[in-house]
Amino acid sequence: MSEQKKGQSIEEKQYLVRFNADTKSHLHVKDPDICMTSCPDKICTIFCPAEIYKWEDIRMHVGYEGCHECGSCRIGCPHQNIKWEYPKGGHGIVFRLG
Amino acid sequence: MSEKFDCIVVGAGPAGISCAYELAKGGANVLLLERGEYPGSKNVMGGVLYRKMMEDIIPEFYKEAPLERPVVEQRFMMMDKESAVTFGYKGMEWSKEPYNNFTVLRAKFDQWFADKAVEQGAVLVNETVVLECIVENGKVVGVRTDRPNGDVYADVVVLADGVNSLLAQSLGFHKEYKPDEVALATMEVLKLDKKIIEDRFNLEENQGCTIELFGDATKGILGTGFLYTNKDSLSIGVGTLLSGLIKHKIKPYELLEYVKNHPMIRPYIQGSEPQEYLAHLIPEGGFKSMGKIVGDGVIVIGDASQLVNAIHREGSNLAMTSGRMAAETILLAKEAGDFSESMLDLYRTRLMSGFVGQDMQKYKDATHHFDKFPHYFDEYIPMLNKAASQMFTVDGSSKWDKQKKIWKDIGSGKDKMKLARDMYRAWKVIK
Q: Which residue range or ranges hold the 4Fe-4S ferredoxin-type domain (chain A) (predicted)?
């Protein structure tokens, strides 16, 4: 069963992926106050498939380096509070297979 | 880059490459822009490539393209928590030329396909993001890229920039999508010995199997899972409407793990080694979510125009056909020297009168219907499993008694009416 456990956590999954991260983020929380005061669920921390959104007590940490560029956060944020762009050409996620 | 092209195609996926290939073949001067390191590096698909629409572009491509396996069997599993009712079709006519469809790994396939477009004369430039369309007097005349002096001009710009299509959105062709118009799919490629795959899936060499998963694979949320055989790996994934994940507060990768560990699935993938994890959105709003797809000097194709038939897990074939039709229209426009919306609208009318438009219209209510009535997935599939279990369990009670019990378990007369009504409704939205 030990083999079945491989790749099970999101950290392990993300470790399988190649990223060529830019030095600056392509994702921005437009108004940090909205996350703090108007968004009790902070649902982006749940549905983001790479778990790049992490709530740290008073602020949203955006680990853009591991982004799959899927667009879910832009569409799913209940407050349209995420400015979403593509990373600079040649940067970001690099799929090798699928 | 201040050159002018006949056409600029933004995005090297199945739609964009098909379009660039056909344009170059038709003698047009075409620039194909890709934001990734190479074509395919940003692209994700469960993995079924349909032969017919690809052959409309490159006849007998299967003799040289990097394909995984020709699919000879398609299974459908209606899953409950610890059971499944399975049906499927396997046919040897699919094991030989011209084949029906193939499993593919997109990063490999798209690179090969883009190379073919380059052989035809298309200019491929990777690592280039298109920031916006350059619009003059209401007409799209080029694109602004993120390269230094990165403006490029063309008679026509084709937007094949995928599900997010920020470019079509910024032209006002479609509104921002809502969470119930897109499905979030996560998948993994699992390395597994070729021989083990063939034994487990009852295959011979160069034969593949696809299994679509319904019901408990998505914990009752609207969506599906899949398990496909590649040469020496499996692709396993699960996709649900983004709105479903939000409503049920489910983490997509935990749902993927749930599927991988499901007792109906686990034995297939046992001992495999995860090689890659991928996430991507699928446009599933269907016909009603389609925005404008033609404007002055601009055409939208593929996922960017929401061309996905969610019921039949078709997308790349619609993308290819839309790319090919866009190219045909642009070649005619080039001949006529007219790149206006009314000329380019020929693309839309041809697309919508062919199989692409017909299928989009046929299933226009399907996603919304199944989303609105979740009991298809969370009630009826378990009911089907329970009925099968009762019927096939030999325990000394007569088959008549078993049938009576199954009938009784459906519920009151009112419940039976509801079931009949729902079955009729489901039939209506897909008929």
A: 58-87
